[in-house]
Specification:
Strand content: 5-15%
CATH topology of the largest domain: Rossmann fold
Number of strands: 10
Number of helices: 20
Shape: elongated
């Protein structure tokens, strides 16, 4: 599926006079600002401008495309410079500030469109942890970059006549909305559209609702299907959800968003995983004070860096090791952060409160799960006599059930032929059970047969699950389910062919295996119930367009 690079190459020969400026063009310009244009684009307060084509030529005199990841922003500049739709656009008023002492990271430039209008592009969050820290800072304060964005937009509107478009990706989207909100009243109507690409909203305690309401109808908020950043202090505007070729948090990169023709490929809803995270974060924010949010943001991002990570990608690659380092560092931080961490995990727990656990346990699948757990406990409790015990219990139960059913069949008024058949069936079952119970040496062999049936049934269940959900489960999930099927098949065959292989140690191991399988199956059912639970808040989302 195409992304922004494919779009630039596909649409590049058609000028804006023929096909007007759209939100996919806008995404390209919002990503273009991530490149380092220092010394290339004339700065704020300077006269002059430079075309994207000329800027690309200068940039690649000192930068190489060799070895770059396909999601690197250099590709946007490279291909825009090659095609007249974008290469003929002019850039000016470049600002790039990176002042760690002031906790200030701010980059912007102005794009001059052929119809005399101007697009102000604010750079957003990179994948560096220090940059993400600033996204979380908006949970308790106005940040320096927001104030700088408002000053910059006011400067551009005073310097140039014509309509204004403003936008950005990630934090850049937040800056775009903030700057538009704080534009002078007399010129705010010149702002025709505000684009926020997976940009967070604003802390309710400091949001000026009157100013926001004045511009909200002009905001286009576009987010990926797995969205966390764009749902921080969720903007109360419609969200356009787009498909992505990346996984989980990596979908934040606009380079991964899927495009078909001149529009995004849409999804109707966010993924269930990001929805759970967003509920928990919203709940946590609602229960934490401003000071607790400040302490949490400082300590949790310091904890991330304590694990040796520099980027958010390092956290994902580090898996549970880095995650454990984060939690351990947070646990050793000051008490305010401990309170917030506790509240956050409490929020996660409350996200699962809507699950009706008793209903799940009463279902057919839930009964099977409990049976597997119970069976595993028996294997671990009496490993020496487990086969004799289980076989005896099942045979005795079967004999009692057959005797009861035989009596019921004898007094039931029905067709004579059917009645005779029913009674013969229960007599046969009763005789088999009595035959097993009459000789204790037969019981372990009988139990092995039952175990074989159980594990072969579990094998079939695993394969059936893979086939049924082949289009929705991940490759890793398929691998583990197939591995589970192979293990179940192996145990089932061994139960029949080599019953002597099951000594005490193997019985304990098998018991542990049954308990784990039962719990995993139960957890999967609970998560599916959470996914299917109706959401209390239903926002407008774009229809799927594929």
């Amino acid at each position: 599926m195409a992304n922004i690079i494919n779009y630039i190459k596909w649409r590049g020969d058609i000028e804006f006079a023929q096909v007007p400026f759209n939100k996919v063009d806008n995404l390209g310009l919002a990503l273009l600002v991530y490149n380092d244009f220092a010394g290339i684009i004339p700065g704020k307060g300077e006269n002059g401008r430079i075309s994207i084509s000329d800027a690309a030529d200068k940039y690649f005199m000192t930068h190489s495309l060799e070895g770059l990841d396909k999601f690197a922003f250099d590709w946007v500049l490279y291909y825009m410079g090659q095609y007249k739709r974008f290469g003929s656009l002019y850039l000016s008023d470049y600002v790039d500030v990176n002042d760690t002492d002031r906790n200030m990271v701010f980059t912007a430039f102005t794009v001059h469109l052929p119809d005399g209008s101007h697009f102000v592009s604010f750079r957003g969050t990179t994948m560096e942890i220090d940059d993400w820290r600033m996204d979380f800072q908006i949970s308790f304060e106005e940040i320096e970059a927001q104030r700088a964005a408002a000053v910059y937009l006011r400067y551009v509107m005073e310097k140039y006549a014509g309509n204004i478009y403003v936008g950005g990706h990630s934090k850049g989207g937040n800056l775009a909305v903030y700057a538009a909100m704080h534009a002078p009243d007399v010129v705010r109507n010149r702002i025709k559209k505000i684009y926020s690409y997976d940009g967070p909203g604003f802390c309710p305690e400091i949001l000026e609702e009157d100013k926001f309401n004045d511009i909200k109808e002009r905001i286009d908020h576009v987010v990926p299907a797995f969205c966390v950043v764009g749902m921080l202090f969720e903007l109360q505007v419609p969200h356009e959800i787009v498909a992505s070729s990346a996984e989980k948090i990596a979908q934040h990169s606009g380079m991964s968003w899927k495009i078909e023709g001149d529009h995004f490929v849409h999804r109707r809803f966010l993924t269930e995983e990001s929805t759970v995270y967003n509920r928990a974060i919203d709940d946590w924010i609602g229960n934490a004070t401003m000071e607790q949010r400040r302490a949490f943001t400082r300590d949790i991002f310091d904890a991330m860096k304590a694990g040796g990570a520099v980027t958010v990608g390092d956290i994902s690659e580090g898996g549970f090791h880095d995650f454990g380092t984060i939690l351990l560092s947070a646990a050793n931080s000051e008490s305010k952060t401990k309170i917030v961490v506790g509240k956050f995990f409490g929020s996660l727990w409350r996200s699962f409160e809507k699950i009706k656990i008793l209903d799940t346990l009463k279902s057919f699948s839930g009964i099977i799960d409990l049976f597997l757990i119970f069976l595993g406990i028996i294997f671990m409790t009496v490993p020496t006599e487990v086969y004799r015990f289980l076989g005896g219990v099942v045979a005795l139960t079967g004999a009692g059930w057959s005797a009861v059913m035989l009596l019921k069949a004898g007094v039931r008024e029905e067709n004579r032929f059917i009645k005779r058949g029913r009674m013969i069936f229960h007599i046969i079952i009763l005789c088999v059970m009595v035959f097993i119970l009459s000789n204790l040496e037969r019981i372990p062999k009988w139990t092995n047969l039952l175990m074989a049936v159980l594990f072969l049934s579990l094998t079939f269940a695993c394969i059936r699950y893979i086939v049924r959900y082949k289009d929705t489960i991940s490759g890793k999930a398929k691998f583990w389910m197939m591995l589970l099927a192979v293990v179940n098949l192996y145990i089932g065959i061994i139960s029949i062919a080599v019953p002597s292989r099951f000594d005490d140690i193997k019985s304990v191991t098998l018991g542990g295996y049954l308990i784990v399988v039962g719990f995993v199956r139960l957890i999967i059912q609970l998560l599916e119930q959470l996914h299917n639970a109706p959401s209390k808040k239903r926002l407008y989302y774009e229809e799927e367009d594929e």
